[in-house]
Amino acid sequence: MNINQEQLNIFKTVMETGSFSAAARKLGKVPSAVSMSIANLEIDLNLKLFNRVGREPIPTAHAHFLFEKTEQLLVEMNQWKQQAIALSEGLESALNIVVVSELIHTDWTEYVALLAEHFPTLQINIFTAPQEDALKMLINQTAQLALMFEREFLESREQFVEFKKETLVPVAAIEHALAQHSQVSFEQILQSLQIVVASRDRTVKPELLYSKNYWRTDNHHSACSLILKKLGWGVLPVQMMNENPELRKKLKILDLLDFTPKFEYYVDIVWNKESNLGLAARFLINHIRKQRIHTK
Predict the structure, then answer these.
(1) Which residues form the HTH lysR-type domain (predicted)?
(2) Distance of CA 286 to CAs 108, 128, 289, 290, 291, Å?
(3) Residue 115's pLDDT is what?
């Protein structure tokens, strides 16, 4: 059996138009070519698809059954062709993107939507991880791109482009002891338990760590839950509170006496310069670079 896409398309058109001649006109072919294609399809399938009685062919029950499957099969064949063409042009078979836990509430989804629009056959996988773990995923190439905060020291293999700023603030539950003060000194912060978002690797020291005593979690949702239980204070994204007005009623932004109670960071798209990035990853990087030029 050797059935090709053109045969299926001709069969589908005959079923839709109701005759060989109408299908021929729609497809820009001569009626004899359509009739021959259907005859060959019947031979290949060893099935009678049309009863040729009277002026127009009458579809058999077999034809009606196969017609229901034909359109989806043609769609899948076209998708397969598009995927093959895209792969030949350098498109990844899949793009893995890791988003640092504190950045889940940023508008990163608009960039994923942009990729889906330009590369509809691309499989996109999104992961979340603490900053240090996200960098490890880039280095070991389990992720091709990472959405991360700026780093004080760059790993030799990483390359990046800035695309926005993000603000984090120190918070405590409104019933917490720290929240009872109009201003909080560094000594008070130092002595209070801190809930910190940190790497799953216990050997990696957490960033934004100020207290002597601290608990670790690998995502800001867990951190927020622990803070709301008055178990400690922590640093959370402002955007997280902006998106959930209820949090603003339950949390207090601490006014730190000795330093500015806002931590503003640039957010970067980061990649491993030793990786052979595919078409979609390069497209996104170039898109963000163009955005930076237009906003300067």
Answers:
(1) 1-60
(2) 16, 23, 5, 6, 9
(3) 92
**pLDDT at residue 223 in the model:** 92
Domain ranges of the chain: 5-89, 101-164+266-295, 165-264
Residue-level pLDDT at 86? 57
Asked whether the beta carbons of 169 and 247 are under 8 A apart, the reply is no
Phi (first) and psi of residue 120, to 5 degrees: -65, -20
- Top-tier CATH class for 101-164+266-295: alpha beta
Residues 200/126/268/139 CA torsion (nearest 10 deg):
60
In angstroms, the CA 149 to CA 265 distance is 6
* Reported pTM: 0.59
Domain spanning 5-89: CATH 3.40.50.300:
no
Query: Beta strand pairing status for 123-129 and 158-173?
Result: unpaired
Domains 101-164+266-295 and 165-264 share a fold: yes
CB 146 within 8 A of CB 157: no
Task: Say what the pLDDT of residue 175 is.
Answer: 95
Find out if CATH 3.40.190.290 is the number for domain 165-264: yes
User: Residue with structure tokens 């050797």?
Assistant: 2
Beta strands 233-237; 123-129: pairing state: unpaired
